[in-house]
Each structure stands twice: as C-alpha cells, then as structure tokens.
Amino acid sequence: MGERLDSGECLVWRCPAGPLPAPLHTLLDDAEQARARHLGHDAARTRFVTGRVMARLLAARYADTTPGQVVFTSTCRHCTGPHGRLEVHTDAGVLHLSVSHSAERILVAIARDTVCGVDIERVALRGDRIPVSALSPAERRVLADLPQPRRLAAFIRYWARKEAILKATGDGLVLSPADLTVSAPDVSARLLSWENRPPPHLSVHLSDLAVGDEYRAALATLGRPLSIVERDVDPLAEASHL
Ligand SMILES: CC(C)(COP(=O)(O)OP(=O)(O)OC[C@H]1O[C@@H](n2cnc3c(N)ncnc32)[C@H](O)[C@@H]1OP(=O)(O)O)[C@@H](O)C(=O)NCCC(=O)NCCS
What we know:
The chain is an alpha+beta fold. Helix content is 29%, strand content 27%.
C-alpha cells in the first residue's frame, strides 16, 4: 500500500532545479519526453524534466504505484485541451498537483481532493522596470508608498500570490492578474477581491511559503484551507529509493 495523504493536508516539496541523471528521464511518459525535446533552452528543459520527475516521485507515494506508471491528467479550463493543472485519479480519490519553477528552485505541491496552485518566483527584474500593470489599482498604491528599495521584493510577493491563485483556479494568465487584489506584501496572504471572476466561485485560501530571501512563493487552495507541510527534498536522494 502507498502512503496515505491526509485530505486536510497539502504537502509541498522544495527542490533544487539541477539536472538529474539521464536514467531518471525515462520515468517521463512519451508526451513529457516530447515536450522536453522541444524545449530548446537547456535550463528550461532541466527545470521541466526535474519538475515532472519530482511530481511523479511525489504522486507515486500516494497513488500506490511507481513513478513511471503515474498517469497525469490535465484538462484546460478554457479549451479543454490536455494541459494545465495536474491530477492523478486513484481509488482513494483525486490527487491534485501543482508544479512551479523559477531559476534554481522548483516547488511541487500535492493535496487529496482539494485543488491547489503553487507559485515560486525569484526576486529579480525581468525587464527594465517593475511591470505594475499586473497589479490592481489598490496594490499599485501600496507599492508606490513603499521605499524604492523594497518595491521589487514586494511586487514579486504580489505576483507569486496572484499566480498561485490563478493556477489553483486553472485560469493561468488567460485572466488578468490585475483583476485580483491580494493583501499587502507585509501582511498575511489573503485574496481581498477579484473583478470579473468567472464561476465557480469557490473560496480561495492563500498562504505564503518559506523559500528564503532570494525567492517568494505562495500556495492557494480552493474550497477549504489545508494544513501545509513544507519539506526540502533532494531529488537524487528521493530517486535512490527506486
Ligand atoms: C499557468 C502559468 C501562469 C504558469 O506559468 P509558468 O511561467 O510556466 O510558471 P510555473 O513554472 O510556475 O508553472 C508551470 C506549471 O504550471 C502548470 N500550468 C500550466 N497551465 C496551467 C493552468 N492553466 N492552471 C494551472 N496550472 C497550470 C503546469 O503544470 C506547469 O508545469 P509543467 O511545465 O510541468 O507542465 C502559465 O503557463 C499560463 O498562464 N498558462 C495558461 C496559458 C494559456 O494560454 N492557456 C490557455 C490555452 S487554451
């Protein structure tokens, strides 16, 4: 029997995004292997492969199967195509997974019978200025009132919270993150309002995750809050149990 994941719990694995030995790549299914081949950028490919291997290792524990036999399903909320949030259907319910990559870090979240969305972001500027158009008017005012040196980290905190919510709902960036207003970066994470939110309107439960000074991360669950267990995981050590 596989391990039991309590339905009131969400487990979050924090992993380095380094390359894995080639034999571990064979855990991926044909579609994943094809996606990996098409990711030209070496770092992007490494992040994708490591994220999926970790998601398989984690799901296998609770689906009572082996990592190579885990069957992920995903159905896009917008076009019903096979992409988006990951699910694993088991006799004991549905395992919901969410994966996020940024620079050198990967997060994989798993919960039973509750949808979750996780996001990690490195505190770094991607263009030449902070893209404040991703923020709601209320959030922009909070950011503008902060001393300039604190604005980038505050923006990244906002971004991680919003993207975690949009990943939990399965919308991703099809919806504008500026329609969501979340609590100010230095107070506990909460969704305050959401303009033009498409149904269903399940309650959103939001938490910041502890990922060190160089990153910001958040987890959202829909319908109910879960008790979050965060764990640092070494992919090679996990894979050595195979
Ligand atoms: C979700 C999204 C914001 C993630 O951005 P990103 O820069 O790839 O960031 P992350 O690394 O945090 O997340 C990657 C994971 O998001 C998940 N994901 C993708 N689309 C998702 C969605 N709509 N909802 C929830 N999760 C989604 C995938 O599991 C992916 O992991 P994978 O690379 O192993 O497949 C972005 O991919 C997005 O907006 N996707 C929807 C795009 C779209 O146009 N969809 C409509 C098509 S009809």
